[in-house]
Design brief:
alpha/beta; Rossmann fold; about 50% helix
């Protein structure tokens, strides 16, 4: 059984499934995932579209549904006699579910660690008790887990192979295909992969984008998420001029001049393309107050955390407004030296993340663990 709860987890899970089935085609895989994991060969009990909760208040509201999902997953485990479960990130749900699996004879692999180094060490005792093997994607996590006595292995980040294996279109071909203005560079907006993120972030971002495009001769492109209906974006097109492009995020990151990007995996992807950006994040007031008390790191953007300094600006909560987004963007876009410094620093991320082949390495570890069961 493999469980992912978000768009990035679906992507990483799909690559993992392909590698597992390449090595052992007899394996049958069940769980939670999106279109990509299902296309790779997983039988999904639930689609990630149903699992996109964000923040404490949203989770509380969905507790009855979460309990039903966990009950259904346990029924599948019993019915199919499943002995191994792979959890992909998504810690709120996955760690809770791991606790429920404790009474069964289940080997638990955790692929892509919860960011417990950001939340303090509280969760590490739980992980040590529940997880058979941590398969990590950031090099700095290894020492953190090893010190706590957790069985851990670093495989590199799956984004490295995904970007390396992606066939990028030329600027001419891309601009022609999507009817973009070849005289203007792209201002890229990535407002998240959940509907409530898009609703929260897109209006203010588009207001700022209008001014940024006017001042710096850019055109706005919003990278749509495949699991969000087009109407969530298009209802803003009466007020703002932008192009919505879905399924071509890497091409957009490669070709864009600047990005306004919701905190999450997308900031790391943009960093790997050396795209100067602003990181934005907004959640409910209650969730944010709790997060603020618990979080132990200075930054929220993965690019800044990996590089150990605030290379790109981060705007959180009330700072996610058109005025501040415009001002922070202007600082970078009007200063060629600063703009190029940011690009150069982002270029270090590839070196820090190690070599590609994470999915293959993770699949080998899991299959080896299965054989030892």
């Amino acid at each position: 059984m493999i469980i992912a709860g978000e768009v990035s987890g679906d992507l990483h899970g799909a690559h993992l499934i392909k590698e597992i089935l390449k090595m052992n085609p007899a394996v049958r895989i069940f769980g939670i995932g999106g279109d990509k994991m299902q296309a790779a060969g997983m039988q999904a009990a639930y689609h990630i579209n149903k699992m996109a909760f964000l923040g404490l208040t949203e989770v509380i509201k969905h507790l009855p549904f979460i309990k039903r999902v966990q009950k259904d997953l346990i029924s599948i485990i019993k019915e199919k006699n499943i002995k191994e479960v792979v959890l992909i990130d998504y810690p709120g749900f996955n760690l809770n579910f791991a606790r429920k699996l404790k009474k069964f004879d289940i080997k638990i692999f955790y692929y892509i660690s919860p960011q417990i180094w950001a939340w303090g060490a509280g969760r590490i005792k739980k992980i040590k008790k529940l997880v058979s093997k941590m398969i990590i994607v950031f090099p700095f996590e290894k020492e953190f887990y090893s010190k706590a006595g957790v069985d851990v292995e670093f495989v590199g980040h799956p984004l490295m192979e995904q970007i390396e294996n992606y066939s990028l279109l030329s600027k001419e071909m891309f601009f022609h295909q999507y009817d973009l203005d070849s005289s203007k560079d792209i201002l890229l907006i990535l407002p998240g992969s959940r509907k409530n993120e898009v609703d929260n972030l897109l209006p203010e971002t588009l207001k700022a984008a209008k001014k940024i495009c006017r001042e710096f001769n850019l055109q706005t492109v919003v990278a749509g998420s495949e699991n969000i209906d087009a109407e969530s974006y298009s209802r803003h097109q009466n007020e703002f001029e932008f192009k919505l492009i879905t399924g071509k995020t890497y091409d957009l990151m490669n070709l864009a001049k600047f990005g306004i990007i919701k905190s999450g995996t997308s900031t790391l992807e943009a960093g790997l393309f050396q795209l100067p950006m602003i990181v934005i994040y907004k959640t409910s007031a209650i969730t944010y107050l709790i997060f603020k008390r618990l979080v132990k790191v200075n930054n929220i953007g993965m690019v800044n955390i990996i590089l150990g300094e605030e290379v790109v600006p981060e705007l959180i909560q009330k700072d996610v407004n058109a005025k501040t987004i415009f001002e922070e963007s202007k600082k970078i876009l009007s200063d060629t030296v600063l703009y190029n410094q940011i690009k150069d620093k982002l270029g270090r991320i590839k070196t820090l993340l190690g070599s590609s082949g994470a999915s293959r390495k993770a699949a080998s570890i899991i299959l080896l663990g299965m054989n030892e069961s």
